[in-house]
Amino acid sequence: MAANQDSERLKREAARRALDLVEPGMRLGLGTGTTARHFVDLLGEKVAQGLKVRCVATSEATLAQAKGLNIPMTTLDDMPELDLTVDGADEVDPELRLIKGGGGALLREKIVAAASLSMAVIADASKAVARLGAFPLPVEVVPFGLVSTRRHIEKALEGLGAPGELVLRGGPKPFVTDGGHFILDCRLGAIADPERLAAALSVIPGVVEHGLFIGYARVAFIAGADAVRTLGRL
Ligand SMILES: O=C(CO)[C@H](O)[C@H](O)COP(=O)(O)O
Question: Which positions are annotated as binding substrate (predicted)?
């Protein structure tokens, strides 16, 4: 319980640092997950004090939270370019490559990140890793042809010399994403070449998106017990 409270405090500290990047009039992307939730809470306080921003959410859950806080929300179709997206991550490496999708929102998260001029990652220190891959890599797939798609993913992983164990999230009652897809969590261990893996996954029919975010994050705020460390810069 105490450890959980401490972790929530760290997440909020990281979120507070990202809030310093927000300027009046900005177009913002709002991430998903327990850390992003703190950012949306803090942003809601600023909006209540008069800050003017317009935002796009990366999930239905975040949209509901933001609307509840009276944060002005719109769609990416109405506002296709964003100034800044603030989101959490499951892992962050020293080159600001990420694994995301633990909360199942990776597809919208990547679309929103790609629409943003900058992305800031907020995380507690447990998410900072030397090498990606201890966290299972989420791969979002179309339900149609699941078994076939899964075999293609397994073959691709074997071809890269990195066979992994694939687990359908939710098991017999699969987890369904906001886009109506399933998620295969790929237990890989340390990923030798994230760029190569990302490229191999992207070309498999039935794969909608994978949780490797490469080249999106410009800065990460990593909250540890004593301080918030900044990786990269805007
Ligand atoms: O990618 C995500 C959701 O799809 C989240 O950002 C990621 O899972 C981190 O979540 P949390 O802040 O709850 O640890």
Answer: 32-35, 87-90, 100-103, 127
Any residues with CB less than 8 A from the CB of 181 and at least 6 apart, and which? 107, 140, 141, 142, 143, 208
Q: What topology does CATH give the domain 137-208?
A: Alpha-Beta Plaits (3.30.70)
As given in the structure block, the two tokens for residue 120 are 């800031």
**Is 2-129+215-225 CATH 1.10.10.10?**
no
Q: Which of 8, 35, 62 to mutate to test the pocket of ligand 1 (most atoms within 8 A of CB)?
A: 35
- Per the annotation, the verdict on 109 as an active-site residue is yes
Taking the C-alpha atoms of residue 136 and residue 125, their distance in angstroms, rounded to an integer, is 18
Domain boundaries, given as residue ranges, for the chain: 2-129+215-225, 137-208
Ligand 1 centroid to residue 122 C-alpha, Å: 10
The answer on whether 74 is annotated among ligand-binding residues is no
Mean pLDDT by 10 residues, the chain (234 residues): 82 98 98 98 98 98 98 98 98 98 98 98 98 98 98 97 94 97 97 97 98 98 97 91
